[in-house]
Design a protein that fits this description.
Layout lengths: L7 E4 L5 H12 L3 E6 L2 H11 L3 E5 L5 H15 L4 E4 L14 H29 L2 E6 L12 H20 L7 E8 L17 H10 L9 H12 L10 E4 L6
Parallel strand pairs: 1-2, 1-4, 2-3, 4-5, 5-6, 6-7
The protein binds nicotinamide-adenine-dinucleotide (NAD).
């Protein structure tokens, strides 16, 4: 039987590379998927492409009102939310010397506050409907930060501790909610190219990133989707509050 048969899932940042890979994987495993993003054109195009088991809705993850509306729509349409993947995120590079306050606050909002709002909305909904699973998206940068990822690394470290507190809060049987976090290493998506130095060729950039990994390469969006599927399915039913590093050995 497919791993997610009959499950209803909400994926944020689904128009992006990793979000889209998760969505395709979830559909292949029998889930009904609500795709959400702020990039409505790409989100709708993805929903059209992957067909009937998915639908698209606008959700700015930094906005509490958006979360309220999307959860209300989902519950009235499907009566339940079984899986939330807090995948949306943004990367701006900068060190302690050149990161301004606005950049710092934007990054905390898109990566950390957004995950708080998502977890809160999901816990409230799942508590009423018998439980569920939350998968958050952090980063290798949370545990092995580089000088140039100051705001991003801090925001993703917050996601790890948020995951643990949600997991412990929801650990008793009255909730039946598990919450885990994935820490990807460099993944070959458009986001990674934000780390490229001005004037550096794509070839040199990719070679330099690959060289940082014991497995000798960046990961793929599909490899992150595999980890998210595992944490979303019964195969991981004894896991909560866990940090799953999917990083080609980058944090060894
Ligand atoms: N690519 C990597 O190397 C890498 C490594 C570690 C962690 N991650 C994390 O994986 C997740 C997905 O990244 P990706 O590589 O697919 O990037 P991506 O840029 O392809 O996708 C990110 C998506 O999030 C959406 N988004 C941004 N702000 C939003 C907001 N306020 N509300 C709703 N949607 C918003 C964007 O529109 C985009 O579709 C992110 O959380 C990222 O931090 C990526």
């Amino acid at each position: 039987m497919a791993a997610l048969n009959g499950k209803v899932a909400l994926i944020t940042g689904a128009a992006g590379d990793i979000g889209a890979a998760i969505a395709r994987r979830f559909i292949a495993e029998g889930a009904t998927v609500c795709l959400s993003d702020i990039d409505d054109d790409r989100g709708r195009a993805l929903a059209d492409d992957i067909g009937e088991a998915s639908f698209y809705t606008h959700l700015d993850v930094t906005t509490e009102e958006d979360w309220r509306i999307v959860l209300e729509t989902l519950l009235s349409r499907h009566n339940r939310l079984d899986i939330l993947v807090n995948n949306a995120g943004t990367l701006e590079t900068g060190t302690i010397e050149d990161t301004d306050l606005a950049t710092w606050e934007n990054i905390q909002a898109s990566n950390s506050t957004s995950t708080f709002l998502g977890c809160q909305a999901a816990v409230r909904a799942m508590k009423e409907t018998g439980g569920g699973v939350i998968v958050n998206m952090a980063s290798q940068a949370a545990v092995r930060p580089r000088p140039s990822t100051l705001a991003y690394a801090a925001s993703k470290a917050a996601v790890i501790n948020l995951t643990k507190t949600v997991a412990t809060h929801c650990a008793d049987n009255t909730y039946n909610i598990r919450c885990n976090v994935v820490l990807p290493g460099a993944i070959d998506t458009q986001m990674i190219y934000k780390n490229q130095a001005a004037g550096e060729s794509d070839e040199d950039f990719v070679a330099a990133v690959n060289a940082r990994y014991p497995l000798g390469r960046m990961g793929t969006a599909e490899e992150i989707a595999s980890a998210v599927l595992f944490l979303s399915s019964e195969e991981s039913k004894f896991m909560t509050g866990a940090q799953l590093r999917v990083d080609g050995g980058g944090t060894i």
